[in-house]
Amino acid sequence: MTRLGEYFMNKSLNKANISRKTGIKTSRLSHLSRKESAKLTAEELHLIALAIDVKPTEILSELYGHLKLKC
Predict the structure, then answer these.
(1) Most distant CA pair in the chain, distance
(2) Which end of the chain has fewer surrounding CB within 10 Å, N or C?
(3) Could you tell me if 29 and 15 are in contact, meaning their C-beta atoms sit under 8 angstroms apart?
(4) Taking the domains of the chain in order of start, what are their residue ranges?
(5) CB of 2 within 8 A of CB of 33?
(6) Can you give the C-alpha Rg of the chain in angstroms?
(7) CB of 56 closer than 8 Å to CB of 46
(8) What CA–CA distances, in Å, run from 31 to 17, 40, 44, 70?
(9) Secondary structure element (H or E) that encloses residue 8, with its range
(10) Distances from the Cα of 14 to the Cαs of 46, 52, 65, 68, in angstroms?
(11) DSSP state of 1
(12) Contact at 8 Å (CB) between 59 and 48?
């Protein structure tokens, strides 16, 4: 499961509802939730945030907050 899949699960989000609101196919949402190789686009992130009524930065922090610079 990807970090996005974990986010959906932890928030008890329904992919079918997100799909209906965003126009993103449920198969794409499932792919983003299961496959690490799937890359979330900025457009998809923004639409998902609108659909679940959160700021895109909340999702970004949850998904990528673990990343650090190589200094």
Answers:
(1) 43
(2) C
(3) yes
(4) 3-64
(5) yes
(6) 12
(7) yes
(8) 16, 10, 13, 29
(9) helix 3-10
(10) 17, 10, 23, 31
(11) -
(12) yes
Tens of pLDDT, residues 11-20: 999 999 999 9
As a whole number of angstroms, the distance between CA 2 and CA 11 comes to 14
* Chain centroid to CA 65: 14
DSSP secondary structure of 10-70: HTT--HHHHHHHH---HHHHHHHHH-TT----HHHHHHHHHHHT--HHHHHHHHHTT----
Give backbone dihedrals phi and psi of 20, rounded to 5 degrees, phi first.
-60, -40
Identify the CATH homologous superfamily for domain 3-64.
lambda repressor-like DNA-binding domains (1.10.260.40)
